[in-house]
């Protein structure tokens, strides 16, 4: 009986203790966005900044019960242009805080992914390695003293792409600085280098070690993108002998600043802090080769931060994402952002196989030039060369340690794609003493993609691979050689690769995204010497330049071009600069055929936006479609935001229009009608940025749609004069609908051609 009473007492005590002690709820890091600061772009003292931080503590303290708890919770205060903070909160605390006056939005801090020697010549800035007198480079003085900020994985400051030889004093407007940890040194070229890591620390829940206390780039991505936008001229650039030439950025004489917020993944709170810092520091252009998941605009740190940047006259250029060819996979869809797709240039890296019976097969690789041409080497099937303790399946895919050095040394090894990384297979061959590799795919078509292998390698299709395997099995002494070299100027381009994310815009389909495409496949640029050109830990090679593909590479091509245009037209708004590159983009290849995807099917504006970047045309577009901060606020009102949320963006307060604007009427350089039933009229306004002229319109009409433009001529008599026109679109007949059709609207005075894509989805009538 006594034992039973004791057990009941203990049970009661435990239950009482549980009821008295609150359960520890999971805390997660959130961004609390409060809009903009009333001080705008005015200089603020340290006291003012401390007062802002204190107000953040007060706001959160009112929710948590004490200011001390708020101080423990907040790990970022955004105090320059973006008003808000990042804090570790329970979900219930975040929900309660979202109800407080002045809170525009609260969103969970999420982790996101990071998304040359020939490309600038392909874009027309040079010819045969020479810079002509009419090049935009010459007219823009190579982007002299334009400041390009890059939010990415940091920078390798010792790269020759960032040398400051011959550069003058740093522009007086610059307020940024260089964080010297890890022996990072800035100069008159690399004028800023900062890192942002509190989001990573909040995610890990413990203090960070020294590897997180540096702006030094350990992945190569940030160095590559920054040098593509603004790197100096550097001769002899190549990767393992491929792509040899002079590396340079779009604005070689620009100043550059690195804002490291990717480790290697990028957190919302760190990216937002980097944008806020870059606005304060005085950049002209922000390049972000980062693609976040699709979210409501005020729940997206890039969309939020970039709106503040654009309000301050900064052009924001972002990668469109590498999740194609899925429809609606495009990222960074806000209309104040320039969103860039990726496409090929007229360069390739063939690495071909010739067998002893003179059969030839095509492949691609970066490492092809070390085997003497037309010298045959013994050829062996990897399964026939397996190590004693290895399975046939491991040897078939050339797993590390699966090959017998006695059977491989001095030979070319035939391996099969699958299981392990392709470059790891060439590592296994090299470690076993092999001198080359033929890599057979499992697909019937040629899907080879150039990679930096450890031995000369030729990836071939499954069909060609079977022919090679048959040769090996039916020949007493099979032999082969691998040869190749960089091909330039003989390759049809641009072509839209399958990885480049596509429209329609999943948030506001009335805004066409991506905006345009630019070189993003196999781009040579500077690289970090803290890592090898592959992701393998065993790769101890160090290269000053590397070749990478992705919309991460196309984004800085546009940022560098904007640097040149900003130098020529310093008074143009971010939207005018975007209009210039969109309305002058080209939609045909270098062989005068429509742009296609990699399966050679005709591509659409959902792949390439307005077309392919063509910098020299953009210098003098004739007319531009301009937008102001108020236009963007009216756009946000139309999708459900209210004046209270938006009023902090303008000094004199803001009220949503009594009649919301139609999203179709945002003065964008493209026209997109995602649901046309009957007919609709859209309005656009053009601003003259050239000489007085009369423009006449013509249309390339989408299938099944009639297009009427009123008026059909616009006469401009002075600079900055604006003229408005209306476009009426009507479905001509009944149909099933549900499919997008495409056309173009072109205004011309005989010298300038101002092109806008028309994208229409006619629903059932």
Q: Order of strands side by side in the largest beta sheet? A: 7-10-6-12-14-15-26
Number of helices: 20
Largest sheet: 7 strands, parallel
Query: What oligomerization state is this entry in?
Result: single chain
Describe the fold and architecture.
With 765 residues, this protein is of the alpha/beta class. Helices cover 24% and strands 26% of the residues. The strands form 10 sheets. A 7-stranded parallel sheet has the order 7-10-6-12-14-15-26, with helices on both faces. A 7-stranded mixed sheet has the order 18-17-23-19-20-21-22, sandwiched between helices. It has a 5-stranded mixed sheet with strand order 31-38-37-33-35, with no helix packed on it. A hairpin with a 4-residue loop joins strand 37 and strand 38 (753-762). The N and C termini lie far apart (84 Å). The relative contact order is 0.11.
Task: Describe the protein's topology.
Elements: H1 2-20, E1 27-36, H2 46-64, H3 67-73, E2 74-78, E3 82-90, H4 91-97, E4 105-108, E5 111-114, H5 119-122, H6 136-139, E6 147-152, E7 190-195, H7 198-204, H8 221-230, E8 234-239, E9 242-247, E10 255-260, E11 266-267, H9 268-281, E12 285-288, E13 290-291, H10 301-311, E14 315-319, E15 338-343, E16 347-348, E17 352-355, E18 360-361, E19 377-381, H11 392-396, H12 405-408, E20 412-416, H13 422-431, E21 436-440, E22 457-460, H14 462-474, E23 479-483, E24 487-488, E25 495-496, E26 516-519, E27 523-526, E28 545-548, H15 551-568, H16 574-583, E29 596-597, H17 605-608, H18 615-618, E30 623-624, H19 629-638, H20 643-646, E31 671-676, E32 679-688, E33 693-700, E34 705-710, E35 713-716, E36 722-731, E37 740-748, E38 753-762
Parallel strand pairs: 6-10, 6-12, 7-10, 12-14, 14-15, 15-26, 19-20, 20-21, 21-22, 25-29, 31-38
Antiparallel strand pairs: 1-3, 1-4, 2-3, 5-11, 5-13, 8-9, 16-24, 17-18, 17-23, 19-23, 27-28, 30-32, 32-36, 33-35, 33-37, 34-36, 37-38
């Amino acid at each position: 009986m006594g034992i039973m009473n004791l057990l009941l007492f203990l049970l009661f005590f435990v239950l009482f203790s549980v009821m008295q002690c609150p359960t520890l709820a999971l805390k997660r890091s959130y961004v609390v966005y409060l809009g903009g600061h009333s001080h705008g772009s005015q200089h603020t003292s340290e006291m003012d900044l401390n007062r802002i931080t204190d107000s953040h503590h007060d706001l959160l303290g009112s929710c948590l019960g004490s200011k001390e708890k708020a101080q423990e919770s907040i790990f970022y205060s955004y105090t320059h242009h973006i008003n808000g903070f990042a804090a570790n909160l329970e979900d219930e605390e975040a929900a309660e805080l979202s109800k407080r006056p002045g809170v525009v939005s609260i969103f969970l801090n999420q982790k996101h992914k990071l998304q040359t020697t020939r490309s600038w010549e392909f874009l027309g800035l040079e010819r045969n390695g020479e810079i002509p007198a009419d090049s935009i480079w010459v007219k823009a003085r190579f982007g002299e003293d334009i400041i390009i900020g890059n939010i990415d994985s940091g920078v390798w400051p010792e790269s020759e792409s960032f040398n400051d030889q011959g550069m003058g004093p740093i522009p007086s407007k610059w307020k940024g600085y260089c964080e010297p940890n890890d022996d990072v040194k800035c100069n008159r070229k690399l004028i800023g280098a900062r890192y942002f890591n509190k989001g990573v620390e909040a995610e890990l829940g413990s203090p960070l070690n020294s590897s997180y206390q540096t702006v030094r780039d350990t992945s190569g991505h940030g160095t590559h993108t920054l040098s593509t936008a603004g790197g100096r001229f550097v001769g002899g650039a190549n990767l393992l002998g491929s792509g040899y030439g002079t590396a340079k950025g779009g604005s070689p004489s620009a100043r550059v600043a690195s804002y490291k917020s990717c480790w290697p993944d990028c957190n919302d709170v760190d990216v937002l802090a980097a944008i806020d810092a870059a606005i304060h520091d005085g950049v002209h252009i922000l390049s972000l080769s980062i693609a976040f998941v699709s979210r409501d605009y005020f729940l997206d740190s890039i969309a939020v931060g970039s709106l503040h940047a654009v309000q301050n006259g900064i052009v924001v250029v972002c990668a469109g994402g590498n999740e194609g060819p899925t429809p609606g996979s495009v990222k960074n869809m806000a209309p104040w952002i320039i969103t860039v797709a990726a496409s090929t240039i007229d360069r390739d890296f063939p690495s071909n196989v010739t067998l002893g019976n003179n059969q030839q097969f095509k492949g691609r690789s970066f490492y092809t030039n070390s085997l003497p041409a037309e010298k045959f080497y013994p050829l062996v099937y990897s399964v026939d060369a397996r190590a004693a303790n290895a399975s046939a399946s491991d040897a078939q895919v050339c797993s590390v340690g699966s090959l017998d050095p006695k059977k491989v040394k001095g030979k070319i090894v035939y391996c099969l794609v699958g299981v392990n990384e392709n470059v790891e297979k060439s590592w296994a061959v090299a470690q076993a003493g092999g001198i080359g590799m033929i890599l057979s795919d499992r697909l019937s078509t040629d899907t080879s993609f150039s990679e930096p292998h450890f031995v000369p390698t030729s990836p071939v299709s499954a069909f060609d691979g079977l022919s090679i395997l048959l040769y090996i099995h039916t020949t007493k002494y099979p032999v082969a050689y691998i040869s190749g070299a960089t091909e330039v100027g003989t390759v049809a381009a641009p072509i839209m690769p399958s990885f480049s994310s596509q429209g329609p815009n999943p948030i506001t389909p009335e805004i066409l995204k991506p905006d345009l495409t630019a070189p993003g496949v196999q781009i040579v640029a500077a690289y970090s010497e803290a890592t090898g050109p592959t992701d393998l830990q065993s790769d101890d090679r160090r290269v000053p330049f590397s070749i990478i593909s992705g919309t991460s590479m196309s984004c800085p091509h546009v940022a560098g071009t904007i640097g040149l245009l900003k130098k020529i037209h310093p008074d143009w708004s971010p939207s005018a600069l975007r209009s210039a590159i969109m309305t002058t983009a080209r939609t045909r290849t270098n062989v005068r055929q429509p742009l296609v995807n990699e399966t050679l099917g005709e591509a659409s504006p959902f792949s390439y936006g307005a077309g392919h970047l063509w910098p020299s045309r953009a210098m003098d577009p004739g007319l531009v479609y301009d937008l102001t901060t108020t236009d963007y606020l009216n756009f946000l009102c139309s999708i459900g935001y209210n004046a209270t949320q938006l009023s902090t963006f303008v000094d004199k307060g803001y009220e949503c229009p009594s009649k919301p604007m139609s999203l179709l009427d945002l003065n964008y350089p493209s026209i997109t009608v995602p649901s046309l039933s009957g007919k609709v009229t859209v309005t656009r306004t053009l601003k003259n940025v050239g000489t007085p002229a009369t423009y006449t319109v013509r249309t390339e009409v989408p299938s099944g749609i009639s297009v009427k433009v009123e008026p059909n001529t616009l006469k401009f008599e002075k600079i900055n004069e604006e003229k408005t026109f209306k476009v009426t679109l009507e479905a001509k007949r009944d149909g099933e609908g549900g499919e997008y059709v495409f056309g173009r609207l072109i205004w011309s005075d005989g010298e300038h051609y101002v092109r806008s894509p028309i994208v229409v989805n006619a629903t059932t009538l």
